[in-house]
Every structure is written in structure tokens, then in C-alpha cells.
Automatic annotation (TrEMBL):
InterPro entries: DUF4386 (IPR025495)
Transmembrane keyword on record: yes
Organism: Gracilibacillus xinjiangensis
Membrane found in the keyword field: yes
Keywords annotated in UniProt: Membrane, Transmembrane, Transmembrane helix
Official protein name in the record: DUF4386 domain-containing protein
Protein origin, superkingdom: Bacteria
Residue stretches spanning the membrane: 7-29, 49-74, 86-110, 139-158, 170-188, 194-215
Length: 219
């Protein structure tokens, strides 16, 4: 089996780009979205929201390429599961990213209208604010579930194929289960971000491994 070192390095780089973009999107939007006067805060920080949306899209595009690139390699282990990985991580996950990005842009639109109509009854704006925020949180929870299912498919394939060390793919699979549980709980209540850290750390370790070591030859 060919080592596919260049492919592995590119996949590792995409993981790093996607992760950094995701972190930057949170840095630009996180504190704004936690504001108690959301529409007013958004209206004075519109550029931050727009930048956050841009980084969300960069993250989505980067991570969407990963399953497309890996598919020809992992399909030799299980073609159905490899195709499922492409569907979940390449299509469904990016649909949730796009939906969340749109919700942020809608927030910008309503914040502008809020500023123009500040002298009017703000009840309707409060209702719209609640709807947008709640919808965004639900979209993020769904995205977490979709991401986790795709990750579990990938790490099972990597574990079976031994393209990376079993300790690394096993770490990803266990962390993926925790990540999935976090997303499911997030559909009904608050999300415990700390439970996402094991998988986030694993992906960065795997990214560096792929860049340096590449995929392992078949055993």
C-alpha cells in the first residue's frame, strides 16, 4: 500500500485550518452573543459578527474537503461506512455550519432594524432575539451530533485499517462518544464545552501526526 504521505499531510493541514478558524469565529462572536442587550451589542459590533461568519465558512470548507480526500483510501476498508462519513462530515455538517452562519447574519439584519425603531415597542424585537438565539443554539447542538457521528465513522475506519496508530484512532473513537453525548444533551439543555476538549485535542495530535508521519502502510 502506498504511504499517501502527501495526502495525509494535506488532511492534517485542513484539520488545523478548520480548528483555528472555528476558534477565531468564537473569539469574534462569543462575548457578543452572550450580551444581555444582544441587538444593540450586535449593531455596534457588526464587523465582528461578519468576521465570525467568514471564519465559520472557512472552517466548513476546510473540514468538508477532509472526507472527500480520505474517501478513496478508507473505502477499501468499508465502502458503505466511508460513504456515510462523506455524507455526515462533507454534506450534513456543512449544512449546519451554513445554517448557523445565516442565523448570525439574520441577527445583524434585525439589530439594524432595532436601532432604527428604538423608540417603538421592543416586545417584538425581544421575541425575535429569543427565537434567533434559541435557534442558533439548537443548530449548534445538531451540528455537534452530526459531527460526532461522522467522527465515529472515521475513527472506526482508521482503527480497522490501521492507517494511524490504534491508540490514536481509539482515543478519537472514545472522545467521539463523549462528544456525541454532549451534543445530545445540548438539544435539551446547556452544552458542557469542557466535554468537547478530548476530541479537539485528539484531532490536533492526529493532524500533527499526519503531517509528520503520514498514513501507516497496511499491516
Amino acid at each position: 500500500m502506498i504511504n499517501h504521505k502527501r495526502t495525509a499531510a494535506f488532511v492534517g493541514l485542513l484539520y488545523i485550518i478548520g480548528t483555528i478558524s472555528g476558534i477565531l469565529s468564537v473569539m469574534f462572536t462569543g462575548s457578543i452573543l452572550e450580551s444581555t442587550d444582544l441587538f444593540m451589542t450586535v449593531s455596534t459590533n457588526e464587523s465582528h459578527i461578519i468576521l465570525g461568519v467568514v471564519f465559520i465558512l472557512i472552517m466548513g470548507i476546510s473540514l468538508a474537503f477532509v472526507p472527500i480526500i480520505i474517501y478513496p483510501i478508507v473505502k477499501k476498508t468499508n465502502q458503505a461506512l466511508a460513504l456515510g462519513y462523506v455524507v455526515f462530515r462533507g454534506a450534513l455538517e456543512n449544512f449546519t455550519y451554513l445554517a448557523y452562519a445565516i442565523s448570525l447574519l439574520v441577527l445583524v439584519v434585525f439589530s439594524k432594524e432595532f436601532v432604527r425603531s428604538v423608540s417603538l415597542d421592543n416586545t417584538i424585537f425581544q421575541v425575535m432575539e429569543n427565537i434567533i438565539v434559541d435557534s442558533g443554539e439548537q443548530i449548534q447542538a445538531i451540528s455537534t451530533v452530526v459531527f460526532s457521528v461522522g467522527a465515529l465513522m472515521l475513527y472506526y475506519l482508521l482503527y480497522q485499517s490501521r492507517l494511524i496508530p490504534k491508540w490514536l484512532s481509539g482515543w478519537g473513537f472514545i472522545a467521539g462518544i463523549i462528544y456525541l453525548a454532549t451534543g445530545v444533551f445540548g438539544l435539551f439543555g446547556p452544552t458542557f464545552t469542557i466535554l468537547m476538549m478530548p476530541l479537539a485535542l485528539q484531532e490536533m495530535v492526529m493532524a500533527v501526526w499526519l503531517i509528520i508521519m503520514g498514513f501507516s502502510p497496511a499491516k
